[in-house]
Amino acid sequence: MLTDRLNCIINYVNCDCAADIGTDHAYVATELIRLGRAKHVIAADVRQGPLNAATENIKKNSMENKIETRLGSGLSVLKKGEADAVVIAGMGGELICEILAADIDIAKETVLYLQPMNAQYEVRRFLIENNFRIVKEDIVCEGERVYNVIIAENGERKPFLKEIDYHLPPYLKEHSLYEKLLNKKKREFTKIVKGLKASKNCDKEKLTYYEKLLSEI
Ligand SMILES: C[S@@+](CC[C@H](N)C(=O)[O-])C[C@H]1O[C@@H](n2cnc3c(N)ncnc32)[C@H](O)[C@@H]1O
């Protein structure tokens, strides 16, 4: 049984060939095959250790003929158009942006299923500025933890009107878990503002930015 965070992503995928970038134990890859959400999966990781764990789990599930492992960074392990779905989950938002920027041609030829652990606003901004359309977003909770799942593909999307919208997109307002996301953001911004106020060399610009966001929530 996978975590709700990973199940949420997996339930959106439906393709021939998926890539699980940063696969670690290949939990996403094996579940995609088990549920028939992908016919073939490329499970990739930049480090040999996690890739070994992935290989073991793939063997345990007798899925060697359906899942292949590749060692390498981000989308560089893929040929253009090879994977019709790319899952990048459990990484920081900035790293996800770096991975997409490094191989933007490959990113443009697939559907992206992104689950950033932080800096979700950076991911939204990156997608919009680089002509990706956010097709769908979801919120998923595991206890007190709140996660965002962002699905995007090549296409245009108008920038958000206000800065706060990059943190709390208006299209999520109707979501049953929106209140949880809102409270998480309140806590996050309050902590940053408090920290900045307490620091000796307070970054005034950053403080103004976060105070404004807090006032807009
Ligand atoms: C915290 S684990 C996430 C595992 C799984 N995707 C999940 O969501 O539970 C992050 C994995 O990403 C891998 N990773 C980090 N940077 C990467 C990169 N540039 N390309 C591919 N994998 C990367 C790490 O080695 C690690 O195994």
Describe this protein's structure.
The protein is α/β, with parallel strands linked by helices and 217 residues long. It folds into two domains: 4-159, Rossmann fold; 160-217. 42% of the residues lie in helices and 25% in strands. It has nine helices and seven strands; from the N terminus they run H-E-H-E-H-E-E-H-H-E-H-E-E-H-H-H. The chain has helices at 4-10, 27-34, 48-60, 93-102, 104-108, 120-129, 163-167, 178-198, 204-216; strands at residues 15-21, 38-45, 67-71, 85-91, 111-116, 132-142, 145-154. Strands 3-2-1-4-5-7-6 form a seven-stranded mixed sheet, sandwiched between helices. Strand 1, helix 2 and strand 2 (38-45) form a beta-alpha-beta unit. Helix 4 packs parallel to helix 6 (120-129) and helix 8 runs antiparallel to helix 9. The relative contact order is 0.11. The site of S-adenosylmethionine has 16 residues, from strand 2, strand 4 and helix 4. S-adenosylmethionine (SAM) binds at residues 21-22, 24, 28, 44-47, 50, 73-74, 89-91, 95, 99.
